[in-house]
Amino acid sequence: MARERYHHGDLRSALLDAAETLVRERGADGWSLREASARVGVSPSAAYHHFASRDTLVRALSERTLGWLGERLRQDCERAPGQEDDPQCRLIALGRGYVRWALDDPAVARLVLRGGATGPDSSISPHPHDVLTAELDRLAEAGALPGPAREGAEFVVWAALHGLAVLLADGLVRFDDPHAVGLQTERVVRTTLNGLAQESSPTAGRPPARSAYTERLAARRAPE
Amino acid sequence: MARERYHHGDLRSALLDAAETLVRERGADGWSLREASARVGVSPSAAYHHFASRDTLVRALSERTLGWLGERLRQDCERAPGQEDDPQCRLIALGRGYVRWALDDPAVARLVLRGGATGPDSSISPHPHDVLTAELDRLAEAGALPGPAREGAEFVVWAALHGLAVLLADGLVRFDDPHAVGLQTERVVRTTLNGLAQESSPTAGRPPARSAYTERLAARRAPE
DNA sequence: ACATGCATCTCAACACTGTTCAGATTGGAG
DNA sequence: CTCCAATCTGAACAGTGTTGAGATGCATGT
Prior knowledge:
2 copies of one chain form a homodimer.
Chain A: H1 11-26, H2 33-40, H3 54-78, H4 87-104, H5 106-113, H6 128-141, H7 147-150, H8 153-169, E1 173-175, H9 178-197, E2 209-211, H10 212-221
Chain A binds a DNA duplex through residues 5-8, 11, 32-34, 42-46, 48-50, 53-54.
């Protein structure tokens, strides 16, 4: 706990770790930079050699967490139960993973999902949103999503999933049965995908939506 | 601005007003109790005769805002365009109102929707969530929503709508065309309702979901 | 009219926060 | 072995939420 050497070695990630556990212990806002520094055994000002501000630390923690989550969601899609390679099953697995995370680690999830922290400049890889769009592409290729319905579909699914996750992390919705949350998530995904597939008259001339993520994606494809 | 009388008269709502405009000016977290007090022309400790803590002030502001929003959403439903009294048109109007609010007043919306602040003990009337469930009931009575699909449908619609609102308020999704947000909202509502209506095999034995709002509703129906 | 009670507000103080900056300490490159 | 740049410390600043003891004045009862 107390370090002996003057130089810490990897203070940056040590601070991220300390902040993360503090968030878990005291909630998304119940901690301070000073406390995290003290827990690492370092003076408060030391942190400023690795983060420009407390807010930068939060952003960095968010990015680290989102990257880890994205990787896990990708795995969840691969290991999806059900018929071999059914795109819908994969999307359900993705949704379950996303929501399960929000419920298992609500304090961190609240901090991260509060967003604003994850602008288009961030280099999160793979970003959960990327995983979602990839899975929707797979669904479209399988023919389960008509062409016009695919366009902008990620916003519908994302909104529904994100909304459920936020509601759960904030404690606005609760489920007594631990299985209930999974079933409810599955229902949300199924309902959304069904609704999209049977979109009778796709909104004529629907203007393109733009998200921080699509911008980031575009920037990645055409660097400079 | 500067008051002459020693007693303010209605300091409580004056503080709420000051906090509200401060949130608009500097963001959900960029303000302090002291600043709000100073703007009202009162010492910082005066606030503690009306609010137990800064957090209580935030909660009170959230409740006031949600009550106002609920009333406006109810009006939006009444004035819904489209065929006379079409329940789906009413729900679309509700969704548009909810999302428009999140976009027109994003800082306040972020503060309010961050939630946790709006527990079941709050006496918000009419709560936006109540308005939504009432409209879903109307839809079910009109036969546009099969019985088994109605059960727990509010969570699906709420999640989708809430998710879109949060994504917009947090700036994670942006729309260039001002019409786009309305169209996207409409699409989310339509898609969700369509998906619910055509729910092929409603999840067998789906356990009851419970939200802070259903609890509050139950408590209101059976006081004591 | 006047005293009294009580809600309301002020003042001063506490511990704590994020942030800055001059200087001490070090690992590693030349 | 020297020196540099990266890293960390210590002390300080303005500002925060919160508390408690005391001042102020409105409304009420006589």
